[in-house]
Fold these 2 entries.
Entry 1:
Amino acid sequence: MEDEVDRLLEAWRRERPDLDVTPMEVLSRVSRLARHLDRARSQAFEAHSLESWEFDVLAALRRAGAPYRLSPGRLLKETLVTSGTMTNRVDRLAARGLVERLPDPADRRGVLVQLTDAGRDAVDAAMADLLAHERTLLGSISERDQARIAGVLRELVRPFDLEKH
Amino acid sequence: MEDEVDRLLEAWRRERPDLDVTPMEVLSRVSRLARHLDRARSQAFEAHSLESWEFDVLAALRRAGAPYRLSPGRLLKETLVTSGTMTNRVDRLAARGLVERLPDPADRRGVLVQLTDAGRDAVDAAMADLLAHERTLLGSISERDQARIAGVLRELVRPFDLEKH
DNA sequence: AGGATTTATCTTGATGTCGAGATACTCTAG
DNA sequence: CTAGAGTATCTCGACATCAAGATAAATCCT
């Protein structure tokens, strides 16, 4: 069964028969699937009145474990955004009462961002929903194939994980 | 060998042992890899003074074949952006001399966007570079695995391809 | 033919992000 | 102890995007 990428590659092969476009068989599909997953995620979070970017921050704090407290700097690394963006995100999450800013007792330059109870409840509920939805998406793929593909993707991601140290 | 997603999932399993997070073994890696690919793409295009979004539009026109001419509406569907975005993109590409707007002789509401020679040269060079770079990224994956993973990804994307229209 | 609906594109205002720079504090070397 | 380098966070301006609405033209229906 054909998909959009098959059509895309067919067009390129017609127009540029000199190029070998097979890398796109994998990588274009990764990009397109990721775009679709983003939209699906947004929809899953809508039921919990969370934006994707809100979930990203809350989830990083939740994963950190009690007392659900991280520095903005640490949050940057977890969420791969810049410092200006994180300031903005924390501002909005604090305004919604999902996190609060605490002064870092060990470094007066620093700040700690901590999940409130409401924030924890929100992220826990959203996470359960997200996983349920993702399980549906993967429904047609055998566990064996899922494990295989996860292994290949791990190899593909590794060079990038390494370069940022 | 571990990657960032392994660490992520380990944290979730510690904090929420009640949840089954295995869907993320595949889907989180897809999302993260896509983000890395975006950055890599941007870098590859830098040598040609193209932004990713510029390439997306030029590539859609290039794929269409001579005379490299599409309506804005058609470009929306190819690039998955909104009409306001496309107006903006075409404006900028026209200002750079990479495309030009022509009136549609068959529909006076309509416009046709056409690649200039400079636009065609730019996208052809960028495409060759992009593929070279992508081939490097996939270097460690056997052709057999690439074909396998492409097949699984095609299945995962299909539901999304279907739902639009 | 004429009025209503649909279609194609552009305009506008809001949003989230980035990147560069500012500020305040900490650490290190001498 | 202090000067300089380094670090953590925030501020600000620019930018690409989206969503909703405006405009204009084509198409449909009676």
Note: The two ends of chain A are 41 Å apart (CA to CA).
Entry 2:
Amino acid sequence: MADQQLTDLIAQALRACADAGTLPACEIEIALEQPPKPEMGDFSCNIALRMSGEAQMKPRDVAQAIIDALPACGLVDRCEIAGPGFINFHLSPTWLQDAVRDVLLLGERYGTSTAGAGTKVQVEFVSANPVGPLHVGNARGGPYGDAVANLLEAAGHEVEREYLLNDGPDNTQFVLFGASVQARVREILGREFEIPENGYRGEYVIDFARALLERHGAEKLGAIPNDPSGHDEMALLAEEVVVEHIRETLAMLGIEYQSWFSERKLFEAGTVGAKIEDLRRRGVVYEKDGALWLRTTDFGDEEDRVLVRSNGAKTYLMTDLAYVDDKLARGFDHCIYVWGPDHAAQVPSVKAGMAAAGVDPAVTEFIIHQIVRLTEGGEIVKMSKRAGKIVTLRQLIEEVGADVTRFFLLSRSVDAHLDFDLDLARKESEENPVYYVQYAHARISSILREARAKGLSTEDLHEADLSLLQHADEMRLMRWMADYPGEVLDAAMRRAPHRIAHLSRDLAATFHQFYGTCRVIDLEAPELSRARLALVSAARTVLANMLGLLGISAPETM
RNA sequence: GCGCCCGUAGCUCAGUGGAUUGAGAGCAACGGACUUCGGAUCCGUAGGUCGGAGGUUCGAAUCCUUCCGGGCGCGCCA
């Protein structure tokens, strides 16, 4: 693409200056931006200002040195120094036409790159405990993790989406859930029952108990002892049903995992045991009060952490360290964890634990998303899973639709709190931003249909004479096409799908403006019509590609 | 008390590894545009001391310090 070529040219010029001794060697990243006004050029670069300190030269002199060393090529028409020392580049006029042509030729591949080729990345997200339906509180990680995975794939990485099932035998919550299901099963069977203290009291536990009885029969379930080992057994049986439910709910949002990883496997495969032995050999653990502690303070944590409780149960940190080993053994170069804010405090412990175990913490990346709250009638909807007062993700999707759900959840920066206004989503779902974007896509589809109905070909549009596109609104659309691949890469590197959400709205607006001033189908001007058909077709492709990254449908009609 | 996140237009939010850039969008409000490709659209008006105060710089919504306000965490639970 043009911006990449230009960056390379500047880099060449810098090397030439360094070799000639006119400028010092420089490690500053070359960043291109758009000048404030179109007549100032197509790209500007601030490298001269940023280098002037180290070079001990005036910025404008640095800029001149770079310009003098710039290799000749067909891309750059001319360049000039502006303001305090910016270099403005005017490119040859065909570069925008080339961008449009690239969109038409590459289709859904336009915007992808090979920047991340050769790096295998895992994105683990949601990973809610398999102890009930997904609720709105853990809904955010789903679309976010999935969209980040999409972005990383677009950037050329090999990506795997994984859901970690916290179903370990030492997982207090999991076994407690088993006990709660056990109680409900006994209730249905007419036996004496008691829901454990702090157990799961929600109605949905009864539903799961019923489903279990249907699947396995009263005889088998009734024979399971009502003791800790029975609770564990019951939890494992219930897990199948719960996970099915979770999987279906996420599938409603278009989320498909390549891997569902059972924490229990870490115990059965001996990964946990091996990790403990390894840590002992390294001398980074000690016994205290009957528990096994890890010296995480030696590696930057605030206090030491327990790995094995005095009752023999392994802690979350213990299994997490074993889990990292398993991931790395599976060949991932980089492991992204998408966690809720309630887990933020664990990150330093896990990183310190990895360092203590001689594993480079940099292979992991923890992304903490902030909370989602539902508001209704101006009030925050209170939720408590154990008390059973929850709004499930499934209910939300059924109420406002998958596209609206995803777009709402993806529209905000992952760092920002998100209030999901139920009334607004329900009442005004037809005026949603997602609708605006989808409408642009449907409208272009309609234009292309109409063109064909009037006898204009929409085949081989990349051969159209794009030099006919000179209107300011046409130029803006073309510029949009040219900038798009860089935006995708940027969003991928920043793990910021919300940028794509905002950009999709911007492209839709740019198209709608163009539509207001430029008539596409004009049988009196077939060549111009063909060029404009090429342009809107390219715009449609990019809209569809953005919606694809977000996991939102791109309808031909609405 | 400590840690993390947030504070930008009436509301919901972008922009925050400094720079020719002077602060943007949607919704809501007000005024316009359909004999023409989808009006679920477009054009225009109005609306902000970028939470406050210092500091660094030629230049700060953006970086540093501090204070205020809101959220979330801080277990031998996960």
Note: The first helix of chain A runs from residue 2 to 20.
